[in-house]
Amino acid sequence: MIHIDKIIIGFDSALRTLLTPAQTLRPVPGSSLPEAELTDAEKQLSSALMRVNHVGEVCAQALYQGQGLTARNNDVQQTLMQAAREETEHLAWTERRIAELGGRKSLLNPLWYGSSFAIGVVAGLLGDKWNLGFLAETEHQVGTHLASHLERLPLQDEKSRAIVKQMSIDEASHANMALSYGGAELPLPVKVTMKLGSKVMTHTAYWV
Q: What is the pTM assigned to this prediction?
């Protein structure tokens, strides 16, 4: 049974994610590095890639809120909330970097949040082992996506690269944590469907 306090907390989280600047307890990775001299084209590339990463963190917030809302086990709920807190920091880091590069966040963030929240709710309803398995697979796919960004970001853009590198470390930690709590490996068709959905999101967010 879903308690009303969880619904209120989830609604508050959605408003904070979409409407207010995210906060971070940890220092922003690369904040002490000097700003590199980037061409307009390089700035545009870095900004677009960081916008995609920001959308990924918006989706992560929504997924974890949806999963936490329907998770049955209290330990699983706490695991999801801990991951969500770290994802909030990623949200803050990418948001700040987009501003530094003179870019903008995705215009479709409310859509990304709503659709990801719904997926999270469904994952939670399937049971905790599948809930955690979905979390682990999501983080594995995000890790692959971040690795591709490290290949595409301009080499001299060390500030953006530092953020992406730390995000990669955190995402791997979240995946391992989910598996350690009993996450099940998802069926191949589900993994493929997740990858296809991720491609649609990342390609759209790159431009919009």
A: 0.87
